[in-house]
Amino acid sequence: MIKEMSLVFGSKTKAQEIVFLLEDVKEIVRQGFYEEELDKVEKFCKEKGLFLVRSKFKVLLADETGYSNKGIRISEEDKRPGMHFVYISKDEEKAWLASYYELVGNDYDLGLLLGYPKCCADFFVKNFSVERYDLELKASNLFTNLSKRNDDCVLLSHFPCSSDCEESLGLGKKFLSVIRSVDKERAEEMENLLIEQINVGEDH
User: Fold this and answer.
1) Is the pLDDT of residue 132 over 90?
2) What is the mean pLDDT of the chain?
3) Which one of 11, 108, 199, 201 is separated from 35 by 20 to 30 angstroms, measured CA to CA?
């Protein structure tokens, strides 16, 4: 299921987020797409009864990692191939509210709306900067392990305030359980990759 959805959304990680939305374990998700990718995403959302709101700006990314917010905002009218953020939800008001929070730079309330723990939203606001845009911490467990996110294997869509953050651990466990219920093969793939990475780190 997730592999098939990744053909629409461009990655298994993005497809997972939509599964969480459809299974009611997330109320809203935020993802980035280039213009040429949006038609099939918008078609899928319409078919599933999901509301999609585009950001009122585009972003030129400084790198291609899905977790980096390092980039330059440019106008929608700018001809350069920037990425739109989109906010997808079953609740139209929440999709618009997320768009507004991002537009005005209210990262804390955006994080809370996206379901991030308060401690992690606070951690992001206090630590994120242009110079320090990757807040990944050394992983101690598979549930908060972000080390394989560039290989399309991650459970969380936020930076945990610590590897053992209880709320983040709870979210990771819940998300893996949902993945296992809809795509057992993907769940096993993720468990193996995320545990392997922690073991590799411990060996060095």
Assistant:
1) no
2) 89
3) 108
Q: What pLDDT sits at residue 204?
A: 40
pTM of the model as a whole = 0.88
Sequence-separated (6 or more) residues with CB below 8 Å from residue 145: 139, 154, 155, 163, 194, 197, 198
- Structural domain of 72: 2-203
Count of domains forming the chain: 1
Confidence of residue 203 (pLDDT cuts 50, 70, 90): very low
In SS3 terms, the chain reads as CHHHHHHHHCCHHHHHHHHHHHCCCCCEEEEEEEHHHHHHHHHHHHHHCCEEEEEEEEEEECCCCCCCCCEEEEECCCCCCCEEEEEEECCHHHHHHHHHHHHCCCHHHHHHHCCCCHHHHHHHHHHCCCCCCCCCCCCCCCCCCCCCHHHCCCCCCCCCCCCCCHHHHHHHHHHHHHHHHHCHHHHHHHHHHHHHHHHHHHHC
Q: How far apart are CA 158 and CA 197, in angstroms?
A: 19
Residue, of 69 and 74, whose pLDDT is higher: 74
